[in-house]
Every structure is written in C-alpha cells, then in structure tokens.
Amino acid sequence: MTSPLRRPVARRAFLRGACATIVAPYLEALAPRESAPPVRAAWLYFPNGVADGSWQPSADRDGRLRRLNKTMAPLERHRESIVIPQKMFTPRGNGHGAGTATWLTGADWEHRELNAHGPSIDQVIAREVADEHVVPALTISARGEGFFAADVPRNTMSWAAPGRPVFRETDPRAVFQQLFGGGPSADTSLLDDLKDQVRALQRRVSQSDRRQLDAYLDAIRTLERRIAFVQDEATARRLARASELGLPFDPERPIEAVPEDHGEYLDLLLDLVALALWSGASRCASVMLDHGQSNRYCTFVPGVRGTWHALSHWKDTSGKTEDDDGVTSWSSRGSKREMYDAVVTWHHERVARFLDRLASLPETGGSLLDQSMVMYGSSIADGHEHGERDLPILIAGGAGGSVRGGRLLRHRHETPLERLHLATLRAAGLRLDEFGDEDSPLDLT
Amino acid sequence: MRSRDAVTMTRCAGLMLVPIIAGWMSASAAARPRTSCEPAACGPAASSEHSGVADKEVIELLCVECHDGPEAEAGFDIGRLVASEQVAEDLFDWRRVRAMIESDAMPPPMRTGRGGGLDEEDRRAALSFLDAVEREAFARGGAAGEEPARRLTRDELAHALQDLLAVDLDVAALMPPELVAENSFDTNGATLFIHGQWLQRADIAVRVAVDAAIPDGSLAAGRSLPVLPALLRRAFRRPPTAEELERYARLKAERLASGASPEGALRDTLIAILSSPHFQLRLEDLPPEGDRAGGQERKPHGAIEPERAVSPHGLASRLSFLFWCAPPDDRLLDLADAGTLADPEVFAAEATRLLADPRALRFARSFAGQWLGTRRVGRELKPDPIDNPSMTDSLMADMRDEVARFFLMLLREGAPLDDLLLGRETFLTEELARFYGVEAAGVGVARTEAPERRAGLFGKAAVLAATSYPDRTSPVLRGAWILDDLLGTPPPPPPPGASEIEEATLEAAEEGGARAILELHRASPACASCHDRIDPLGFALDGFDRFGRRRGHDDLGQRVDERGVLPGGPAFKGPEALSRAILAHRRGELSREIARRLLRYALGRPLEWSDERTIVELGAVLSERGFGALMEALITCRPFTRVTIR
After folding, report:
1. Of A193, A194, A323, Cβ closest to residue B1
2. Would you state the pLDDT for residue B63?
3. In this model, does residue B539 exceed pLDDT 70?
4. Is the CA virtual torsion B78, B80, B86, B89 positive or negative?
5. Which of A211, A212, A230, A318 to mutate to test the interface with B (most CBs of B within 10 A)?
6. Which of A230, A330, B392, B434 has the most CB atoms at less than 10 Å from its CB?
C-alpha cells in the first residue's frame, strides 16, 4: 500500500478528519526496511494485577537486571531479553473496565458511548499494513467465565475506531481458520458479487449506515486477503517447515477440539499467535489471557483455592466479604497472597513458553524473538488496592535492535503507557509524532 | 472485596450513566404525593423557563465547585450542564445528579459540613428544578428515532436459517457470542459489530445449514424448499427486484451448465442468497435511491426532525424479528405486499398471531433471559459440577425456560402487571418440579399452579440463581438487581473511601453473619445512604439459596431473617410481601422499567432522552391495563412505526 502522506502528522489532527472514512489509509508511511524482515509486535494482557512487590526485580545501580522477582521465576530464562519499566500508568482510565479498555489506546473511557477513543496501537499498525497480511492485527482472548464474560470494556482491548471494539476470537479452531481457511469462504466470485451488492447499497443509505457497510466491505477484504495468502508460494514454503518447528500447523493432525485443560488451551492459542507472526499471516497480535475482571476458579493451579479476582483482594481473608465466594477461606493474608502470586506465576509460565517459541523460530539474522517486541502486563498494579500507579509491565524481545534487554528502567516520575506504545510504533517502523497525549517515546535502546 | 465492588460489579462499572428514572416520575400513585404531577397533565406548556433561576442556582452553588470542566471530579462536568440551555438533551446527566441528591450521596459531608446530602430547603429547590427538566424532556420528546442498518444477531441468523431452510438445526453454536453493553440487549445495533471473523463464521453457519437442508443427492422426502422467487422474498424480507431474480437464476443456470448436479446448483445458489448483505443486514426498509423520505412528507406536524413511516415490509420485519427472532413468514409478507399491514387492526391481529406461535418462545427466552439475567444460568454462571451433581444442565435449562414461559404467558394472556410478581401459574418439567419439591403435573413441560412461595419472579429458581454468586447468595446483589433491573433506579456508585470504612469494621463482624456485616456498613453514613435502599430488599429473598432452593439457614449458618423494608414505604417480611410492597409503592417505576427494556430490545438501538416520553406512556398502559395492552402499545408507538431521516 502506498500512503498519500509523506510527512509525519500528529495523530490527533488526523483522527479529526479520518473518523468518518476509516477505509482511507491515513497514517505515515512505513520507514523503508526493504531487506530486514518487519518487526512484529504482541501485547499480552492479564487481569487483576499483582500483589504489591511481586513485580519488583533486583538490579544493579545502573539498571542491569540481576534477578527477576521470585514470583516471575518462569521468565528468568528470558531475563536478558526483558526490560522492566517502572512507574508506568494509564493516565486516563484505570481498573478492571476502563483500564482494560484503554490499555492500548491511552485515552479516556466514555462508558455511555462505549468509547475508548481509539484506535488502539495494534489497529494503528494494522491499518498501516492492511494489505500485507491476512489478519494484520490478530486479536485473541481466553473464553470468559463468571461475571462480565460478555461485558464490552472488560473484554475489549482493541479498538478500530472510537466506539468500534475489535472482535476477539476465543476458539483455537476458529483462529486457525481465520488465518489459513479451511474450506468455505474461498469462493472469490461470490466475494466479488457481495462487494458489488454492498457498493450498490452504499449509494442508498445514510451516513451512519455507510459506516456499517464500510465495515462489511472490510470484512469481505479480510477473506480475500486470506485466499491470496494461502495461495502464495512463499507462504507454502514457510508453512512446510511449521510442523517440524513445533507449530500447530500439521495437515496430519488438524486442530479438532478445544483442549479441556486450561493451560493446554492457552498454550495452543499462544502457539497460534507465534504461527501467525512467523508465517506472515499477521504483523501483530494482542492476547487477553483472561477478561479484565476474571472470576475464573483457578483451582487448576496447584494449591490454589477460590477465584482469581477474589484472590487479588488478598488482604481480605474472611471469605465473607462481597465477591469472595463465601465458601473458600484463607488462613492468613500471607497464604492468600501466595495463592494470588501462584495464579500470576502460572500465567508467567504460559508467557515464558510463548517466548521460548518465538526464540526457537528462525528469522533472517536471528530468531523471531529478536525481531519482535512483546509487551506483557496488567491494567492494575496491586489487585487489592486497585492500584493505578506502577503497573506491572515488561517488554520482551529485541524489536530488530530497538530494544536492549536485561534492564530495569527506573523512572523518577510516573510515566504514561502511551510513551511505551509510541516506542513500539517507532520500532515497528511507523513514523508517528505522537500517540495519545505523548510525543516522547520511551528510550529502550 | 468490598460491597463497593459488589455494587459496581453488577451494574455500574465506573460511573455509569444508565438512565435512572427517578423522583417525580415514580408518580403512579399515592406513593409520593409531592409528585402527583404526571407529565401528561403538566403538558407541553412546561419548560425550563418555569423552573426558576434560583433552583438551578442551588446545584450551581453546591456541585460545580468540584464538578466543573475537563478536570471535574469523577469526570462529571456539571458546570457544562448548568451552562447549557438545552436541559432536555442532558436528561440522563441530570438524572445522575438527581440520583446523587435523592440518595444523599452528594454533596459529600466535607462539602456541607454535616452528613452527606442537601438540607431540606436546598433539596426541595434542586428537585423542583430537576422536575422541570423531566417535564421539558417529556414535552419535547417522543420523536421516532433513527433505525440503524444493523446486522442480524447470532440468534437471529440461526433462527432465520432454521425457518427459511426448514431445518431442525441450531447453528448458533458455530457463531461467536455477542458482546452486550450493560443493561442492554444483543439486538442493540451499537454493539452488533461487523468484522471478518463474523462474516467467516456466518459463512460457515450458512453452509452447514444449507448442507443439512439438502441431504446427499436428493431433497428429504416430504419436505421441499420454496422456489427461488419465494425464497428470495423471505430471505430479503421484501419482493426481490427483477435484477436480483435474474442474478440468482443465472447463477443456478451457470452451475448446471458447468456440470453441477441439480442439488449442487441449488446449494450454491442458496449459499449466495444467504451470504448477501440483504439477508444478513436489516435493510428491508431502505427507501429508494435519492428519496430518503420514501415519497412521504418529510416533516410531519410536531416533529423536530424529518421522519417517515416505516414501510410495510419494514413493519413486517420489525414484528417478526421482535416476536420470532427471525424473518417474516409468507402471510406477513403477503400483507405487506398488499399494503394492508399498516392498518392498525391488521397489525395488532398479526402481533397476536405471532405471539401465539410456538416461535414466540424465542423472544421470551431472549428478552426475559437478558433483561433478568436468567439467560446466564447454567452458562456463564455455572456451579462446579463435581460439588453440585444435582444441578444438571437439563435442570438449569428448565429453570431458564420457566422464566421465559412464565413471561410469555403474561403477554399472551394479557395479564395484569401484578401477575409478574404474584402470579402462581408456572411451567414445570418433572425435574424442576422435583427440585421445587412439588408433584409433577405431567410429562414434559406442564402448566401448573406453583406453591405460594414460588409465585411471581421472586419465586423462580433461575432469578434467584442469576442474582447470586456462583457459590453463595448476596442480599446486596439481589437488592441491587431489584433496584436496577426491575425498578430502573440503580444505586449510584459508592463514594470514595467506602471500602476502607468497611474493612475497619469487618473483623469485628465475623460472628454475626451476613446480616450483621451488612448492618455494619449501613451504620456508616457514607454507606448507609445506598445500602439502606439495597440490602433490605435483598434480605426478603434470603429464604432461597444460591440455586433458588428453600432454606432455613443462610450460607454462614445463621437462621434466615426475611425482614426488609422499602425506603419510604412499609416494612415487610418475605418475597410475597416484598412483591406487594413494590406493586403498591413502586408501581410506576416497575412498569416504566419494563417498558424501557422492551422498547430498547424492540428498537435495537440505544435509547435517547426523547424516548423517555414513549416510555412514560407505555409504562402507564402497563400499569393500568396490563401486558396485552402494553404489547399493542409497543408495536404501534411512534419509534416502532416511524423512523427519523438523517
């Protein structure tokens, strides 16, 4: 795609003009990177925060990471690829709902209008590379359980535009079909026909309906891109090696069922993310390891009782307060905190395994992890306090040389997450002047 | 976690702006003599000019210091509201002010130097201004509203495929679940997002359904698909154009010419038709190109914005998607073709026919299940199957369906409002009867008179389970559910610091059980203003456990104590007395909230300030004449039969 714009523009100024017609490319062109493979980005979200202190590593005076926090032991093997920035916060939306909805937009949350004033960072990238990938920004969530499983803000991290949440797939089989097809929707003449019908309709409908039809056209184009992608020779060459590299792309063993085991289920979803990024089906991916106020019973973690959200309020041990389940009780704050930590550690293991996978996939000049920038964290600091300051956030991967790992970034002042997003956008090759309210990217080199 | 979040959790993530009907609008009755001025009686003459400057000044003086500009407390800019001349347009924000004042949650103690809230004189002045806002909104309200070109919901698509292809196959499970805004419905066009995954899954669902309709080699015996023109008419919910007829006839001919079997050609044609945006999007009421008014007068008398009548085929679809969650049948389309459907008598008779059809159960399941939250029972709200072997999937389905069938019965039989809370007739399967501890009346689903304690909504197991946590009951959850989902007066979010107050008192309360804990936070002024309203309602239902079983002791082993009190109303004991108290003292709120939810579901769009007039009118019909009259008024009201042109 060629962008009509050659000079960097302020995102805000642009959005003002671009809200109505979102199809037109409106972002600054990609910086030239002809030879190197593109930097991939991923955002992995977990809900309910971490207990105060459980993200704190030990580091030298100059910020060199000596050892991650003991609750983060599974990630220790990736320490040299990890940067932990301190005092990160989302200035204008916090907590289970607003914090989740604005985690990737860095803007205000407007509840009545269901508006996180997006687009979110993944969709900004997606729009820039729209024609180059089947699903430019893959969006995935663990299927919900308990209260709020269908709630918009707690289940939405990606926004195509203000008030337009991006759908998040929860079924591994459907993710696979989304990327590589599987029979239906391969009928190009049918898709051409549908496009004709939509264009004819666009002449007859109101302005607001036209937006719906634009979304419909976008949806059709997604299916068209996939057809082109799976017919591409380079795709075929790459995918021929996928299965031997341990990726879930095996004609002999297609994904037939959703694993019952929650760990296997999340691992499969994350393997599909790795496959999408490595095969070139996607440029970036966002994954919600659970919805923003997960009340999932985490009894699959050894030694843990109760729901994740109840555990996150670790200073209440009576088991009789609202939202604890009234049956589960804890003998002390200490033991409840241990269980809370254990649930978070269990999710760290999933992420560490995902990083293993990225590190094992060959990419020009190194591994996919070297070419990726992964942000991992939560929208809440201490779960009990609903802490808003010093969010648990880390960055993993080399981002094609834009990130130097093994470091703790000690910030003297509270630092908006948008500055990290801006750094990610730059690493991904987008020359943007600002993201949200911020115009100064976090220095990660 | 604290009660703070319990309330926040259920209803009001952040500072929600759910419409709060309040104050004088609760007027139906002797309940509040000061509010005897019904909007209709006050008439269109009322406007903000009559509200008196002094009244607004109270709010300006006491609220704006903190709630002003972009940095306003809680992000709520009352300064802007006060400065605006258009009070009706800000109705929902003014109601938010009202809820805070009425519950004494604002202004906070530190602002007034006393406990929270306004003194009597200021309060009267503020409420008098807020009454004027309501009157103004009523006087100027009632516009038709815009109809969004929304896509079919997951359930609508599945039911449409069932009906069109005459297949007994539910493909809903092949589609992703819909996200829903709080207190809203899956029919809301604002959350029916269109994206590639939806298109792809719809495509899979269409192909699965078509394949089921065309079994290998030949059409199933005794069942035949309608011929192409008839099928197109039903799929597109209007007469197909000549161009469309030709397009699909040509497709079929081409497939046959290229060697496809008759079934194969038919299959491809069906897939093409059911993939069309004319099937998957609600576009049947599109006016012709270049004529947005559809040949009608653009601005009828009294309308603020131009509007037009919905076309006969638009009406047919509105009716059938409302009552069947699916496209119109041939009879409805015939009436639309003939132009007679808009005749009020014909339209009402059709509504009655659709409601009497077994397919109306889809509507009851969808509407009542989402409104009351009972649709989540056994799905999102699922008890641990190992610890609770008696809570089988079939039992929980029966529980959900009991509520749907009960609600549908009220509509079909035109029952009075009172039956919603007091009606004894219900629908039990053998398994559910056993669960309730009563004699099964027959095989399968049987209509039967429920025991006294199972009367109305409060006796229904699904309602009681939907208002509990997965592993225990909560009077707060149940009380907040009554205030929000039944009465439309959700408690405001807790004041800052509420959780700390509670934490300090918690440990002392360990001995006393749930009621003692809740009594404690009600002893604190900051909590009491809301929990005095919430908790006593919930306690009336404490004789039911988290699955809706009768019990004598609560989750903490204390003897159940079902005493409660309606704020400003009588004390009572148990569910039946609670029902009677609501019907006597909150009849207006209850009937308007039911009207509001139905209107929101039926229109498939977020409601605006100007819809409040319709809601007041529909609520009065329900309160005085019952559910039959309500449904008739709903399908003939202006927003249902007319549409704003933009």
Report:
1. A323
2. 85
3. yes
4. negative
5. A212
6. A330
